Amino acid sequence: MKEFVRYIPPIHELQRDARFSTLTQTYGIDTTEMSTILKNIVSTIREQLLNGCWEGETPGSQPFLEELFQQTEYELAQAYQYTIKRVINATGTILHTNLGRARLSQNAMDHVIQTAQNYSNLEYKLAEGERGSRHVHVEELIKRLTGAEAAMVVNNNAAAVYLILRALAFQKEVIVSRGQLVEIGGSFRISSIMEESGAKLVEVGTTNKTHLYDFEHAVTEDTAMIMKVHTSNFKVIGFTKSVETSDLVDLANQHPSIIFYEDLGSGALYDFSQHEIGEEPVVSDVIKQGVDIVSFSGDKLLGGPQAGIIAGKKVLIDQLKKHQLARVLRVDKMTLAALEGTLLDYSKGKDAIQTIPVVRDLLATKKELQIRTDQFIDRLTQQSSGYTATSREATSQVGGGTMPDVELPTVIVHIKSESMSAETLANCLRTENTPPIVGRIQKDELLLDLRTVTVEEEDMMIHALVSIDRMMSKKL
Length: 476
What we know:
four-stranded antiparallel β-sheet, 3 domains, single chain, 17 strands, seven-stranded mixed β-sheet, Aspartate Aminotransferase, domain 1, Aspartate Aminotransferase, domain 2, selenium, pyridoxal phosphate
């Protein structure tokens, strides 16, 4: 094979090939970058020829050139495609952590685009013509929706916990129930975050039972804070006891120097319990009980972007804003725009709230999903005879470490292919379709839950299923 090395066209000849300019224009790259990719491919081919392991077309032939430019196009596609891709979530898990958690409302997205494409008054007072603070853009909305005296935003709730403990309880004691020393996603633990913050953890009670007197007996002159952590990602049932927020507020009030801080985790601004969905505390209700400070996530039940929202008494929030970590943990203009857009939806009332995808999907009824599922099956079976599709009752999950004990009644499409296994079909939907479609597999059937699928995405899913069936039928 070594003698064929000299038949490999030089790069300057390949640059004159029409396919060179076509690929350059298609992928929007300059000739230098294109030439570099070609050189790397040619170098690999030359090495394989010299080592006697080249299995492609014979250099110097027209098929060789076709193969060379096909390989170039493949390399370009790999090098210049986005790795973060739109995915159709047909799992029924609303806050699917692996799939990006909360989808933003249209208003939030429009605001993000407008803010990202243009200059903005991020840190500028338009009326005064002088420098301002980025905190002001969402603070008033958070105050209005929660009843808090003041508020600020950092990049996630773990950061909020860290900032609060570091700024308000550094080298001081923080009393926490053993039953609330939770571990959140990625093996991050409240106890570890507390240790990193410099606060001194004081554990009281047991895993399943903690009493008010446990907290009372733990208070010392070195106590800076009593902390309550909402166990939003797990549920302890049976022989249990926990201390109510109101009782801990009263205890903290007996000691003027002690702060009562409640980490709410998921952070609900809407009362889902009125629809018999979970028992998540509403932030405004917690604030009304007199807590000093709370923190919660922006991208879980709130339905906005990833953020850690801190609300509470102004004197404490002012301390946090002035702390050096506030700049380290601050959010950018696009996060603030997304959060402002989401909070504005909440502030407009019930109709606007239900334009937030997380809220809308949580409140979708089994009856509504049954209608959509039946229509989906009818359309699919009319367009393709390669599938057997049925609807069956099941449950959806909230996800994102939120409402772990809540099962949302739903109706799922069960699909069985005549020509391929459920695993093969699911793999084709994930890897061969744009956008990728993610469902579930059970007993060699593909399961699709339309709770987390838009009407537009239903059309895309049907098109994908029909196309895959036709492709497999041709192969057979």
